[in-house]
Design a protein that fits this description.
Blueprint (H helix, E strand, L loop, with lengths): L1 E5 L2 E5 L1 H14 L11 E4 L1 H9 L5 H9 L7 E7 L5 E6 L1 H9 L8 E3 L26 H13 L3 H14 L4 H7 L1
Antiparallel strand pairs: 1-2, 2-3, 4-5, 5-6
């Protein structure tokens, strides 16, 4: 996966992103009329403009820092949305949200848009998933990233629910118990 500046935003691109999109579409029987390269937006165009305007960082510096982010721990959780309209793959990427917080930006509900149309005013986080049993497919590391992601996004009650599930499914993994507090 690579992070780069394209069409005014900074996003994550690459074969893995394309694979996540294609696998999710096939699994959920989503018609994929999407034509642009699949991507996951890290920093939106208006956020870049705000950061540069406030002289907090140059565009080049922002892109350079973003390219240093750890991208091995990006996890697809499943498909959210309506298969007849806007739909997306819900993603977890804690390194991306930590980077955003360091820049003074809010946490982002990372996702890969599958449909040709998009609605930027729709919840694209964990609560938007169509499969409520998605956690059964996650291993302990992915569960931990989900718990941390919920905490980063201010969803402490949801994080606690997932941490309890993590402890029940993986009692030998200490992180679950630590996440319970």
């Amino acid at each position: 996966m690579t992070v780069r500046h394209r069409y005014g935003y900074i996003g994550v691109f690459g074969d893995e992103i394309d694979t996540y999109a294609k696998e999710a579409s096939e699994q959920e029987h989503v018609d994929m009329p999407h034509t642009a390269p699949y991507h996951m937006t890290l920093i939106a165009k208006f956020e870049i403009q705000q950061l540069v305007l406030e002289n907090r960082i140059s565009l080049e510096g922002l892109v350079e820092e973003a390219q240093q982010l750890e991208s091995r721990s990006i996890y697809p959780l499943g498909v959210g949305g309506d298969p007849k309209g806007v739909c997306w793959v819900v993603m977890v990427w804690n390194a991306g949200n930590i980077f955003r917080k360091k820049l003074g930006l809010p946490c982002k509900q990372f996702h890969i848009t599958l449909s040709k149309v998009d609605d930027h005013n729709v919840d694209k986080g964990v609560r938007s998933l169509r499969d409520e049993g998605f956690t059964a497919r996650l291993d302990s590391s992915q569960m931990d990233h989900l718990v941390v992601s919920c905490n980063l996004g201010g969803e402490s009650l949801l994080a606690s629910c997932y941490a309890r599930e993590m402890c029940a499914r993986f009692p030998e993994v200490g992180k679950g118990w630590i996440r319970l507090g």
